[in-house]
Specification:
Layout: H1 16-23, H2 31-43, H3 45-53, H4 55-63, H5 69-78, H6 83-103, H7 109-137, E1 153-158, H8 159-162, E2 172-178, H9 185-207, E3 218-219, E4 232-234, H10 235-245, H11 248-253, E5 258-262, H12 264-278, H13 286-301, H14 322-336, H15 348-357, H16 363-387, H17 398-407, H18 413-435, H19 444-453, H20 464-484, H21 487-500, H22 505-513, H23 515-527, H24 529-537, H25 558-569, H26 574-597, H27 603-633, E6 641-646, H28 647-651, E7 660-666, H29 682-698, E8 709-710, E9 723-725, H30 726-736, H31 739-745, E10 749-753, H32 755-770, H33 775-792, H34 810-824, H35 831-835, H36 846-869, H37 881-891, H38 896-917
Parallel strand pairs: 2-3, 2-4, 7-8, 7-9
Antiparallel strand pairs: 1-2, 1-5, 6-7, 6-10
Helix pairs in contact: 1-2, 2-3, 5-6, 5-7, 6-7, 7-9, 10-12, 13-14, 14-15, 15-16, 16-18, 17-18, 19-20, 20-21, 20-22, 20-23, 21-23, 21-24, 22-23, 23-24, 24-36, 25-26, 26-27, 27-29, 27-36, 33-34, 36-37, 36-38
């Protein structure tokens, strides 16, 4: 095998020390293979670890590879007594061997993706067989043969798995079905629930991380109507869905579908019956429009691909990237494949070849697209091999691009960039010529009118009345967008908002009579991705603008509490209450953002508002969860529980993009278990209640999610229980907590829960703070943390805009302030107050303190702006007057260049001063 090398483009070590460290373990192997291992370990931390961990196995396999890797792994799995662990070991071996053969040139791209897919098939099938055998054994399921291959239960592989084109760190798209015709009507419900349970177990077995990693991330969202259907469906219900309401993108998705595991015959029979849905007998040119609409949606979701920046581009979704080539091929297949079954290949390059043979694609176009596709997929694999992450983003820096280039055996990152940019341009020319041939515009105004023509197809404009009003206000919208600067981006974001509206007559009438509201909407669209995307996903919040109170001062007082509680009390059941909580949260979250954009509140007030909103909403959701949980398991036992807010929530410094750091603490001193229909021991009770609360916050419902939650600040982090007893928590903080945990605890604030416990925790925080700590220990720990920051965040990478976590950034100054808090017993949560105590230290002056406070104020104001307009990485591309005016208004500096200069100088000064004075 190793004599059949298809390329000599071995990887060049990016980190030679790592490469040498590993290759020393493989002495005795041929020089060529040692050179390959040197490059693998020197370019990829993930492969380095695998090369060390599986050294003996790989050495043996290199020496004797007579059996295929798939056969070997299948043999290992067949002998396994612990499938969960064995699958993860097998996945690691597959990843190592695939990388070895790919990087060494022993496999070409097709062989790489084929073998990765064959292993995915193997893993899914073993999981299905395991669950099926258990269900038969424990009499949860009865079938005539008792064999998985005749059970009617099948996994349909979609996407790249279906096409045998899996990438290196790919997730797998699956649809699980069962043949309901094999079971009687009396059995159906029990059978259905059994298949659902088994499928959930498979999902867990493949997805769950352990010390040996994971097997595959799974995605089940390609099944019919995934938001409301179970994870496994009957074939009859799936068929009825596709025949009645199946959509154009689902037709295209099924080009790549195949039965991959379980009862393959049943799956193939289903797919055969589905062919009329996928392949229409007429030449379906409407598919061009439908596919182009999907491309536009992808384009809107990935705005960074619209700018001129090469770095950070998503090689899959960017214009001229992988997805464009796939759409090009699939759309032409949909157009003509109903009449010509030679055009139905699931594999992209094969499809392009067949389309060329039949005259649908020019030879030159096929060559360009095929070469670009293979180049992209190779780059994609190298990106993913570095850390085994499912990413398609090109590196965001020159250094990162150099690493990928070396990994591909290319000596200069600039050469790789030229290669990719050439491909992107050539592919763009072909795909744009097909999907949206350019029409010559005589006037700029016509250009924007044409851009907006597609809006007339949105649901909000279905009625004649809505369409009539909208045609009247459309020129006003376009003129205002042009006047604001960057009209293409503004109109793209406006389009996204418009697309999400269920109806438009009332809103368009409002715009017609109140043009200033158009200014408001376009301000949101102009301001940046964050708020405009939020509005697009939650278009219903714009209804709140109709409320005369929208621009009134935001007050999160007792009156607000009462109103919120009253509104949620009107919902009839648990889920409706949670959905209403989301709707109310979305409305106020949007309102805070608009107030901030309009200058009605400053960055400090915005932080307080976002924090207060989180506090109020989380408190109500906590009450809702406790009431619902108590119906089954009884009222909260012991002395109740509280939710402790940490981080920005505790310090009340949240922004529009903040997640919430939470710890649940309960007091079990006066009880052993709950009293209810199904009593639980106190630790179990609060652990399950915590999980319920987290689910209520994070689960996506019709009105979205509330917050991302981080609980890593609880005792022992992710290894600790999700709910902690009061006595254990206090003992841990006083006796066992690391200094960084003590520092973090200075920002703790009780959010909700039992009032007596709230008082005890507040007093305990005060006790921890005022007892004081040794200055040397505190600043030694801060110094250690800063060293970790330095390793993680290159101070020269996008400096000074990466204001949050880099040295001299917000986190750095907050650490310094937390040190002062513990040293001087400061009860305040305010970082500026903390930093004002710096002159009490021997090496620090009042000048140092004031300059640190000013820098912290500048960065926190900027952070609030970035949370709305998007990443600081986009700052140089934000040319709209509105956006720059917002930044300059908040910072009080006259231009962006001067802002950058001041920020750069102040941060470098702070970095240097803190580093020197902590020694």
């Amino acid at each position: 095998m190793f004599s059949e090398i298809k390329t000599k483009n071995f990887p060049i070590p990016f980190n030679r020390i790592s490469g040498v460290e590993v290759v020393s373990l493989y002495q005795g192997l041929p020089d060529e293979i040692q050179r390959l291992i040197l490059g693998m370990a020197g370019c990829s931390p993930y492969l380095k670890n695998l090369l060390i961990k599986y050294k003996n196995w790989l050495t043996q396999r290199i020496s004797n590879n007579s059996i295929s890797i798939i056969d070997e792994l299948e043999n290992d799995l067949s002998l396994s007594k612990d499938l969960f662990e064995s699958l993860r070991i097998a996945k690691s071996k597959m990843a190592l061997w695939a990388a070895f053969c790919d990087l060494g040139g022993y496999w070409d791209l097709d062989e790489v993706t084929l073998n990765l897919t064959r292993f995915a098939d193997l893993a899914v099938n073993y999981c299905m067989d395991y669950e099926f055998t258990r269900s038969i054994k424990f009499k949860k399921l009865k079938t005539n043969s008792g064999q998985l291959t005749e059970s009617g239960w099948v996994a349909i592989a979609m996407g790249k798995m279906g096409a045998f084109e899996l990438n290196y760190s790919s997730d797998i798209d699956l649809i699980f079905l069962f043949d309901d015709a094999l079971f009687s009507s009396e059995e159906f419900e029990n059978v259905r629930m059994t298949f659902i349970r088994m499928t959930r177990s498979i999902n867990k077995m493949l997805n769950e991380n352990s010390s040996s990693g994971y097997v595959f991330r799974t995605d089940f969202r390609l099944r019919p109507n995934p938001s409301v259907t179970p994870i496994c469906l009957s074939m009859d219900s799936a068929m009825r869905y596709y025949e009645s309401t199946g959509r154009a993108w689902e037709r295209a998705a099924f080009i790549k579908a195949r039965a991959c595991a379980g009862d393959i015959k049943a799956g193939e029979s289903f797919l055969k019956k589905l062919k009329p849905f996928v392949w229409r007998r007429h030449l379906d040119f409407a598919a061009i429009k439908e596919a182009h609409d999907i491309r536009l949606k992808i384009k809107t979701k990935n705005q960074k691909n619209l700018d001129d920046s090469f770095y950070g581009r998503n090689i899959k979704l960017t214009e001229g990237g992988i997805r464009d080539i796939e759409f090009f091929a699939q759309t032409r297949q949909i157009i003509a494949g109903g009449r010509d079954d030679t055009l139905r290949s699931s594999r992209t390059c094969e499809a392009l070849a067949a389309l060329t043979k039949s005259g649908w694609v020019a030879d030159d176009d096929r060559d360009i697209l095929t070469k670009a596709y293979k180049d992209y997929r190779t780059v994609e694999h190298r990106l993913q091999m570095i850390n085994d992450i499912q990413t398609h983003d090109l590196p965001s820096s020159i250094n990162g691009l150099e690493q990928i280039a070396l990994f591909m055996g290319i000596k200069e990152g600039s050469d790789l960039r030229k290669q990719l940019e050439l491909n992107l341009n050539l592919v763009c020319n072909i795909t744009e010529r097909f999907f949206s041939p350019k029409v010559h515009e005589h006037k700029i105004s016509n250009k924007y009118l044409n851009i907006s023509d597609n809006w007339l197809n949105y649901p909000a404009l279905r009625s004649d009345k809505a369409s009539e009003i909208f045609r009247k206000i459309r020129p006003v919208i376009i003129e205002k967008a042009i006047a604001g600067g960057n009209p293409e981006i503004t109109l793209a974001r406006f389009s996204k908002f418009l697309e999400g509206l269920p109806s438009g007559v009332q809103l368009f009438s409002l715009f017609d009579t109140n043009p200033e509201l158009i200014d408001l909407l376009l301000d949101v669209c102009t301001s940046g991705e964050k708020l405009s995307n939020y509005l697009a996903k939650n278009s219903k919040v714009f209804d709140s603008v109709l409320d005369g109170n929208f621009f009134k001062k935001l007050e999160f007082d007792q009156k607000f509490n009462d109103k919120l509680h009253e509104n949620l009390g009107e919902a009839s059941d648990y889920e409706r209450k949670l959905n209403l909580a989301r709707a109310l949260h979305n409305e106020y979250h949007f309102r805070i953002g608009v107030h901030y954009l309009r200058g009605l509140i400053d960055s400090y007030e915005a932080s307080r508002c976002y924090s207060n909103l989180a506090n109020k909403i989380l408190s109500e959701v906590w009450v809702i969860c406790c009431k619902d949980f108590s119906l089954k398991h009884g009222s909260l036992p012991g002395n109740g529980a509280v939710i402790l807010g940490m981080g920005s929530l505790g310090a009340q410094t949240m922004n529009a993009n903040s997640d919430v750091d939470l710890i649940l603490i309960y007091d079990a001193i006066n009880g052993n278990s709950s009293i209810g229909n199904k009593p639980l021991d106190i630790p179990v009770y609060y652990s399950r209640l915590t999980q319920k609360f987290l689910t209520a916050i994070t689960t996506k419902m019709p009105d979205g999610t509330l917050y991302k939650v981080d609980m890593r600040l609880r005792p022992s982090g992710n290894k600790g229980p999700v709910a902690t007893s009061l006595s254990s928590f206090m003992r841990y903080q006083l006796e066992d907590a690391w200094m960084w945990e003590r520092l973090a605890f200075t920002r703790a604030r009780v959010i909700c829960g039992d009032s007596i416990l709230q008082q005890r925790l507040s007093l305990f925080r005060k006790e921890v703070i005022i007892q004081g700590c040794d200055q040397e220990i505190i600043f030694f720990e801060i110094g250690s943390l800063r060293k970790k920051i330095k390793k993680s965040f290159d101070p020269n990478d996008e400096f000074p805009w990466n204001i949050k976590k880099g040295l001299g950034g917000i986190f750095d100054l907050e650490l310094l302030g937390q040190g002062c808090t513990l040293l001087f017993g400061i009860e305040s949560y305010d970082v500026k107050t903390h930093l004002s105590h710096l002159p009490k230290l021997e090496k620090w002056s009042k000048f140092d303190s004031e300059k640190m406070i000013n820098l912290y104020g500048l960065m926190t104001r900027l952070l609030q702006v970035f949370a709305l307009i998007g990443s600081y990485k986009d700052l140089n591309n934000l040319n709209a007057k509105f956006t720059h005016n917002l930044i300059l208004r908040e910072t009080g500096i006259d231009c962006i260049e001067n802002l950058k200069k001041e920020l750069d100088e102040s941060r470098r000064w702070a970095l240097d001063v803190i580093t020197k004075k902590l020694k």
